[in-house]
Amino acid sequence: MSAAPDPHPMSASGPTAPAPRGRSRRRASFGLALVAAGVVGLLAVWLLAPSLQIRSNRMVGWQLQGFPGRASDTAATATTFDVYVAQWPTEYKQGDDSWLDQRVIETPMTVTLALQTTDAYEALPWQNRRWFDTGGWVKVHLLAPLGDRVLFDGSGFPPQPRW
User: Fold this and answer.
1) Is residue 15 situated within a structural domain?
2) What is the pTM of this model?
3) 10-residue block means of pLDDT along the chain (163 residues)?
4) Is residue 156 part of a domain?
5) Minimal CA–CA distance to 66: which of 161, 137, 156, 133?
6) Rounded Cα–Cα distance for residues 35 and 8 (Å)
7) Is residue 3 in a domain?
C-alpha cells in the first residue's frame, strides 16, 4: 500500500516560503518616500503660503448689515461688495481698511471670508489703541459672483453663515 500524500509538502525553500526580501524592501522604501513627500509638502505650504495661516486671536467679525442700516444687496450678483466691521481703530480713517487682511476661500458651493488684523496693526502699542463705536465698511473682492453659494464668516469656529 502506498502512503497518502502529505498535505503540506516540503519544498526546497521550506514549508511556507517567505516573500522575497527585495519586494518588502521596495514596499518599505515606497511608504517612506510617500511619508517624506507628505511632510515636505506640508512644510512647503506652511512656509510658502503665509496667507493660509490664520491666527484666531487676530480675527475680526463682520456682517452684511451695519450701524448705518445699509445692507449689501449686490452680494449675490457682483464680484465686489461691502461687509460691516462693528469697531474701527482710531489710528485708521474710516474707509482705510489697511489694518485688515482679507482671507477669501471660494469653492463651488461656499465662500468663506475671514478678516484678521495685519502684522503692522499688531505692532502698534496696546496702550494707545482706541476704537470708533460706529465701525466701518470693508470692500470684499471675489473671483466670481456669490450667486447661490453660501457665504460664511470665518472669524470663529465653526464658521457662521451670513448669506
Assistant:
1) no
2) 0.58
3) 58 55 70 66 48 61 64 72 85 87 92 90 78 81 89 85 78
4) yes
5) 137
6) 40
7) no
